[in-house]
UniProtKB/TrEMBL annotation:
<dbReference type="InterPro" id="IPR043129">
    <property type="entry name" value="ATPase_NBD"/>
</dbReference>
<keyword id="KW-0808">Transferase</keyword>
<keyword id="KW-0418">Kinase</keyword>
<dbReference type="InterPro" id="IPR000577">
    <property type="entry name" value="Carb_kinase_FGGY"/>
</dbReference>
<feature type="domain" description="Carbohydrate kinase FGGY C-terminal">
    <location>
        <begin position="325"/>
        <end position="437"/>
    </location>
</feature>
<dbReference type="Pfam" id="PF00370">
    <property type="entry name" value="FGGY_N"/>
</dbReference>
<protein>
    <submittedName>
        <fullName>Erythritol kinase</fullName>
        <ecNumber>2.7.1.27</ecNumber>
    </submittedName>
</protein>
<feature type="domain" description="Carbohydrate kinase FGGY N-terminal">
    <location>
        <begin position="4"/>
        <end position="244"/>
    </location>
</feature>
<keyword id="KW-0119">Carbohydrate metabolism</keyword>
<dbReference type="InterPro" id="IPR050406">
    <property type="entry name" value="FGGY_Carb_Kinase"/>
</dbReference>
<dbReference type="InterPro" id="IPR018484">
    <property type="entry name" value="FGGY_N"/>
</dbReference>
<dbReference type="Pfam" id="PF02782">
    <property type="entry name" value="FGGY_C"/>
</dbReference>
<dbReference type="GO" id="GO:0042732">
    <property type="term" value="P:D-xylose metabolic process"/>
</dbReference>
<comment type="similarity">
    <text>Belongs to the FGGY kinase family.</text>
</comment>
<dbReference type="GO" id="GO:0047878">
    <property type="term" value="F:erythritol kinase activity"/>
</dbReference>
<keyword id="KW-0859">Xylose metabolism</keyword>
<dbReference type="InterPro" id="IPR018485">
    <property type="entry name" value="FGGY_C"/>
</dbReference>
């Protein structure tokens, strides 16, 4: 039995898991990462602290196991900009994908056609927290920082560099914003369109899928593992979760109800509508000729956390509130765009903001919470309509721990949802990719067999068809107001 530690480096939590041959977790550990919310919409993380979380969870897992492990498989958050020098030291705090400092710049790019040009060349839409606008902002405001950097990468490859000394990037991370997903090479005209041709040398060349690296002396000391132990890095958490959940056939999709609402659909067709709305991502997967059309909306459990803080309730009570207010939330409607950086899928608008309507003195917290949860489910339907969902739908993330919210998703989407038994699907996906890279693949079907299915209720689905039409009309009106 090959034993691989899967490490998922999330935005707020790092988790390590070791699985048995059936895909069940036999040892796991997690620890929090620090997210720094700063004025001006800035959101940053400290690379050293993030690396320390990786060391912490790996050492905890090893303490719970008997005997050695065969490899470490990394996955984690994508986007943002993690600037490092040749030794892997951060030259400034990492800029998170949640960051909004480039909001105004992105609005200028949208008006001037830059976003459309990049989308036509790479099939990925730009948003404030992706590398292109962040790098351009830093180039204008902190050029000396970029001068000191050897690489402008992402979370997973930043950790990989600290563990192995290698400067590289997985094709999934590189997919946004400059990679041609078909050739798996950077499109230099897309780089130039963003005014970054003079910073082209900061982009690490993508590694071939399933490349195996090795712990160097520094990484081995950090993790308490042998020098030379195999390490894999990628895909990042969105495609890793799709792989770990069981998405394998074109048309299958996965809903990740986490900090963001990530909606992905597997496709073997590289075609996209170049005249469509420049939003979402076209992610390269470990299999050439397969892609994930990803619509990672900025709405998600962070919105629920906000509502819980507003009402002074615990997250565990959300399910109870959903049962206290039925479908339609007694006439309360919502648009869920609470992120300071607006929305990035299935449309991009840094000015997108939330709204509630239909409120009166007769309404209470249950109605507002129900309306918010329904609006997030409508946003998921909007994303899946854009991504082309036609097959089996899987789901993961903290949001699906709530039976009531999961049922709401199924009813709004009008389709059954398959929930893997183990919530750590990102780490599962990273381990499955690593095992194949090592030449000892696990039985993916066997791993996906342990799951449950949430059926939709036909009468509720019919009700929500009309609700979705109302949501679309409200969104169209709001988008006109955001432009004023």
């Amino acid at each position: 039995m090959t034993r691989i530690i899967g490490v998922d480096i999330g935005t707020s939590l790092t988790k390590a898991v070791v699985f048995d041959d059936d895909g069940s977790a036999v040892a796991e550990a997690c620890t929090a990462s620090e997210l720094h919310q700063l004025p001006g919409g800035r959101v940053e993380q400290d690379l050293d602290q993030v690396v320390d979380t990786v060391a912490t969870v790996v050492r905890k897992v090893m303490a719970a196991l008997e005997g050695p492990v065969d490899a470490v498989a990394l996955t984690g958050q994508g986007d943002g900009v993690w600037l490092r020098d040749e030794d892997g030291r951060a030259v400034r705090p990492a800029v998170s994908w949640l960051d909004g400092r480039a909001n105004t710049l992105l609005a200028e790019w949208q008006a001037g056609g830059v976003s459309t040009e990049v989308f036509r060349r790479t099939a990925s839409g730009l948003f404030p927290g992706c590398a292109a606008p962040v790098l351009s902002y830093l180039d204008a405001h902190e050029p000396e920082t970029l001068d000191r950097a050897a690489v402008a990468g992402y979370c997973v490859d930043a950790v990989l560099q600290r563990l192995t000394g290698e400067i590289t990037v997985d094709v999934s991370d590189a997919s946004l914003p400059f990679l041609d997903p078909v050739t798996r090479r950077y499109d230099d005209r897309a780089v130039a369109a963003c005014g970054l041709a003079h910073r082209r040398d900061l982009l690490a060349e993508p590694a071939k899928p399933r490349t195996v690296f090795a712990l160097d002396a520094r990484g081995a000391e950090l993790l308490g593992l042998p020098t030379g132990l195999p390490v894999t890095a990628g895909p990042f958490d969105l495609p890793a979760s799709a792989i770990g959940a069981g998405v394998r056939d074109p048309g299958d999709g996965i809903l990740t109800a986490g900090t963001t609402l990530a909606c992905q659909v597997l496709t073997g067709d590289a075609y996209f509508d170049p005249d469509g709305e420049p939003a979402g991502m076209f992610l390269s997967t470990p299999n050439e000729g397969e892609y994930l059309r990803a619509m990672p909306a900025m709405v998600g459990t962070a919105s629920i956390d906000w509502a819980c803080r507003m009402f002074g309730i615990e997250v565990d009570h959300v399910g109870r509130l959903l049962t206290e207010s039925g479908p339609g939330a007694r006439g309360v409607r919502a648009l869920p765009f609470l992120s300071a950086s607006g929305e990035r899928a299935p449309f991009v608008d840094a000015a997108a903001r939330a709204q509630f309507s239909g409120l009166s003195l007769e309404h209470g917290p249950a109605d507002v919470m129900r309306a918010l949860c329904e609006s997030i489910a409508y946003a998921a339907r909007h994303c899946f309509d854009a991504a082309g969902l036609s097959g089996t739908l899987y789901a993961c993330g903290g949001g699906v721990r709530s039976e009531e919210w999961t049922q709401l998703f199924a009813d709004v989407l009008g389709r059954p949802i398959v929930i893997p038994s183990d919530p750590g699907v990102g780490a599962r996906g990273a381990v499955l990719v690593a095992a194949e890279a090592l030449g000892e693949p696990y039985d993916a079907e066997r791993w996906a067999a342990s799951s449950r299915t949430v059926a939709f209720e036909p009468s509720a689905a019919e009700f929500y068809r009309d609700g979705y039409a109302d949501y679309q009309a409200s969104l169209a009106s709001a988008r006109q107001l955001w432009r004023l």
